[in-house]
Write a structure and sequence with these properties.
The structure is a single chain. By secondary structure, this protein is α/β, with parallel strands linked by helices. It is built from 13 helices and 5 strands.
């Protein structure tokens, strides 16, 4: 019986690997998701444990770096394609940690990273997408947003920062904006880092217990936890209303940091492989240039 259970687990892991991760993690459209039904510590696909996950993540590095170089190289010949990774999640869900691990595989000169904080007075004087448009990656680049335009339908809803009629219009504005990005060659990869209420407490306590992490803690973090149900509802609405074919949402269980890092790295790899960027051919006579160099 034990052997049969082991065989079943092996078969399930094999089946998970045969399914693209973006299919396994994509949030279904057409209905509002119930986030309480998703296990934040789950391993829905991929490596079965931490040791395997760390090894698998490290193995992705050279492949990601090679595809990034090809994407950047193709832009020198007029290819306008680029990729934008959008990271959203509750406080301590690992947005900053994800950025650090992803950038570790890539050439920083081909990346554009932006962490969005509360809007400045200048930003508040413009439409909410204004500051987002200014931070978009250029052709050939990989852009990473630590928070994004979704803050304007998340915290704005929870804190009643704008009239509800204007808030409701923003979902349609976001969908039109993301569709326009796709039409201009931007692959938008939107990731919701799904963290549990209990794990957030543990991570906040770790910050309190470590003097070197006090700078990352604010008493306001405790007050924000009181609004957890409201934030969960706001995320469910955003995941529902802004899940489109051009820019779907992916839900990554984030209680296990090693799994979070592997999953996002794998998602990036799958999207870059789908783009399949190519090195541009030389626009000069290679043999002639070689001859000249050898005789100079």
């Amino acid at each position: 019986m034990a052997e049969k259970r082991d065989d079943d687990r092996t078969k399930r892991r094999r089946n998970r690997r045969d399914t693209p991760l973006r299919d396994a993690l994509r949030v279904p459209g057409g209905r509002r998701p119930d986030l309480t039904a998703y296990d934040a510590s789950a391993i829905p696909a991929g490596p079965a444990d931490k040791a395997a996950g760390l090894a698998a993540t490290a193995a992705l590095g050279p492949r990601l770096a090679a595809l990034q170089e090809r994407l950047y190289a193709s832009s020198t010949a007029g290819d306008r394609r680029r990729l934008l990774l959008v990271l959203q999640g509750m406080d301590t869900s690992g947005k900053g940690g994800t950025v650090k691990h992803v950038i570790g595989f890539l050439n920083p000169s081909g990346c554009r990273v932006r962490a969005f904080k509360a809007p400045t007075p200048e930003e508040r004087a413009h439409p909410f997408l204004w500051r987002i448009e200014k931070a978009l990656p250029e052709p050939g680049e990989i852009g990473i947003f630590d928070r994004s335009h979704y803050e304007d339908v998340l915290i704005a809803r929870v804190r009643d920062l704008v009239p509800r009629e204007r808030l409701d219009r923003r979902y349609d504005e976001i969908n039109r904006f993301e569709k326009s990005l796709a039409e201009d060659g931007v692959t938008v990869v939107k990731v919701f880092l799904h963290l549990s209420y209990e794990e957030q407490r543990n991570r906040l306590l770790e910050r309190l217990d470590n003097p070197e992490k006090h700078w990352k803690f604010s008493p306001g973090d405790i007050e924000e936890r009181a609004a957890w149900p409201a934030y969960r509802e706001a995320y469910e609405i955003a995941l529902d209303r802004c899940a489109t074919d051009e820019a779907p949402w992916y839900l990554v269980p984030a209680d296990r940091k090693w799994y979070r890092n592997w999953a996002i790295s794998e998602l990036l790899l799958e999207h870059l492989e789908a783009l399949d960027p190519r090195y541009p051919p030389a626009d000069f006579d290679v043999d002639e240039c070689r001859r000249r160099l050898l005789t100079t």
